[in-house]
Design goal:
By secondary structure, this protein is α+β, with helices and mostly antiparallel strands. It is built from 2 helices and 7 strands. β3 and β4 form a beta hairpin. α1 packs antiparallel against α2. The two termini are 30 Å apart. The model has no long low-confidence stretch (mean pLDDT 94).
């Protein structure tokens, strides 16, 4: 099984740096899977899950906004935020979900607050789904 190097960085930390067999990430164009020898690629990340397979081990994390750059040597993901399931505070995620749902009731599409609340809701839902 050929592997490639994956680096995931956030403003706070180096989230992942190691060899992987497969990574699946949610971009604004949909989910994309990357394996060794993938063509060069760049895209914008959306809020969603990232799935990492090292060969024997499969891991999932939440990831929020950023970029993915695939080159021959390395796949690099720069994300606003990334969290492993054990780092997620479920109560905080539920509170964020409720707050976002209330905000969505107050605003309508076209309002910048509506789109911010939509993003907060999506992030909370992804985080909660990882904890189940």
């Amino acid at each position: 099984m050929p592997t490639f190097r994956l680096k995931i960085v956030t403003p706070e930390k180096l989230f992942w740096d190691g060899d992987v067999y497969l990574v699946v990430v949610h971009t604004i164009e949909g989910d994309i899977g990357i394996k060794a020898n993938h063509v060069n690629y760049i895209s914008t990340l959306d809020i969603g899950k990232i799935k990492i397979q090292t060969g024997k081990e499969k891991k999932e994390a939440s990831i929020s906004r950023g970029m993915i750059l695939v080159s021959q040597d390395c796949t690099t993901i720069v994300a606003a935020n990334a969290e492993w399931p054990d780092e997620i505070d479920v109560e905080r995620a539920m509170s964020s979900k409720q707050k976002a749902e209330q905000q969505l009731q107050q605003y309508k599409p076209g309002d910048k607050e509506f789109y911010a609340a939509t993003a907060h809701l999506k992030k909370a839902m992804v985080r909660m789904s990882l904890k189940k």
